[in-house]
Design brief:
Elements: E1 6-9, E2 12-16, E3 27-30, H1 33-41, H2 48-63, H3 71-86, H4 93-108, H5 114-144, E4 152-155, H6 170-179, E5 185-189, H7 196-207, E6 211-215, H8 220-225, E7 231-234, E8 238-240, E9 245-248, H9 251-260, E10 265-268, E11 274-275, H10 292-295, E12 296-297, E13 300-301, E14 314-317, E15 324-327, E16 330-333, H11 337-342, H12 350-360
Parallel strand pairs: 4-5, 4-7, 5-6, 7-10, 8-11, 10-15
Antiparallel strand pairs: 1-2, 2-3, 8-9, 9-14, 12-13, 15-16
Helix pairs in contact: 1-2, 2-3, 2-4, 2-5, 3-4, 4-5, 4-12, 5-6
The chain binds 5-S-methyl-1-O-phosphono-5-thio-D-ribulose (MRU).
5-S-methyl-1-O-phosphono-5-thio-D-ribulose binds next to helix 2 and strand 9.
Length: about 350
């Protein structure tokens, strides 16, 4: 991709400030955990996998100046840092997955010096980034099998390179299909209130030379009725063990519309987005955001003062509306609890398996 979403750079977290796109492409450098927390909360860095990466790098940032004299002191500080970063955004499970992975990494190296544990934490965060790049390519490859030459695809929000370490999940599928030589056209929902579709998805697709048309969120049904959409592909923030999927608010409406018009509805997500600890979408915590995101547009008030506002950032699409979940390990068609429990959901991380073993033993 022509940009690097997020990485470690000379003791700081360097990231593209996505709130400024598409008008300004600018990197910011976070050098405190407060600044990385703020970057996550205010969507400077956003999208489930990228939030996970920001969390992992946030742990490195929060621990790099630790003066702990031994492992026990270091671990206590690490737990405080993790608990603070956990409070930035609640829905994308990738954040908690990545923070847990950093915690396991620390435990795994308990017998080493504090300074060596610090460098192990940095290695682990960088490994998460490298793995994510690979994962997105494999999601792209697996998903492209479902796309035909000439397909017109509708997507919502941004599940591209900006939302991951590189390449993206839903957009990864589109990129790969295009790389295979398939002629693809995309409709991008603007995605109110924060316009990730209008600002970010169109920007990414245009840079990749993909034919993209921007629509307002309320236009999707009409396009489907006119037979102008061949399939819908979206990303995910959390997938419950029965396949119910949380994604950007508006995703559920698209899934209902797709069902009504007999159009395949695909979710593209890494294994780290599955939350097998919860049975269904009912248990997914949905982030509520500020009223101003709805009452204001580009810094200008567009609604009367004191109007009541409801602003959930995500909704849940029941598994029965999902034609397939596309992962790096393969595609789960018509997902349900049984298929998901039989699917290869192993994290690409031996450390977590190690922790499971210790718990059992
Ligand atoms: O609030 P955001 O912009 O973080 O929401 C992002 C989404 O809903 C994405 O579709 C999801 O995180 C998948 S990103 C690969």
């Amino acid at each position: 991709m022509p940009f690097e979403t997020i990485r470690w750079h000379k003791g700081k977290v360097k990231l593209v400030d996505q709130t400024l796109l598409p008008n300004k492409f600018k990197h910011i450098y976070c050098d405190t955990i407060e600044s990385i927390w703020e970057a996550i909360r205010n969507l400077r860095v956003r999208g489930a996998p990228a939030i996970g990466i920001a969390g992992a790098l946030g742990v490195v940032l929060g621990m790099q100046d630790s003066k702990a004299k031994n492992y026990e002191q270091f671990k206590k500080q690490l737990e405080r840092v993790i608990s603070y970063l956990s409070s930035s955004r609640p829905t994308a499970v990738n954040l908690f997955w990545a923070l847990d992975r950093m915690c396991v990494c620390c435990e795994q190296h308990r017998n080493l010096s504090v300074n060596t544990i610090k460098s192990k934490l940095l290695n682990e965060a960088e490994k998460i980034i490298d793995e994510d790049k690979n994962i997105c390519r494999n999601i792209g490859k697996n998903g492209a099998e479902l796309i035909k030459n000439g397909d017109v695809i509708l997507t919502h929000c941004n599940a591209g390179g900006l939302a991951t370490a590189d390449y993206g999940t839903a957009l990864g599928v589109i990129f790969h299909a295009a790389e295979q030589g398939k002629k693809i056209r995309v409709y991008a929902d603007e995605t109110r209130p924060l316009l990730q579709g209008a600002r970010l998805t169109t920007w990414e697709l245009m840079q990749a030379g993909i034919d993209v048309t921007l629509i307002c969120d309320n236009m999707a049904g009409s396009l489907m009725r006119q037979g102008k959409i061949d399939c819908v592909i979206v990303g995910a923030d959390r997938i419950a063990s029965n396949g119910d999927t949380a994604n950007k608010i508006g995703t559920y409406s698209l899934a209902v519309l797709a069902k009504a018009h007999n159009i395949p509805f695909y979710v593209a997500a890494p294994i780290s987005t599955f939350d097998i600890n919860i049975k269904s979408g009912e248990q997914i915590p949905i982030e509520q955001r500020s009223h101003e995101e709805v009452t204001n547009l580009c810094g200008k008030r567009i609604a009367p003062k004191n109007v009541g506002v409801y602003n959930p950032a995500f909704d849940v699409t029941p598994a029965r509306l999902i034609s397939a979940i596309i992962t790096e390990n393969g595609v789960i068609k018509k997902p349900n609890e049984k298929k998901i429990s039989n699917f290869k959901l192993t994290y690409p991380n031996p450390l977590l398996t190690e922790r499971e073993k210790r718990k059992d033993g």
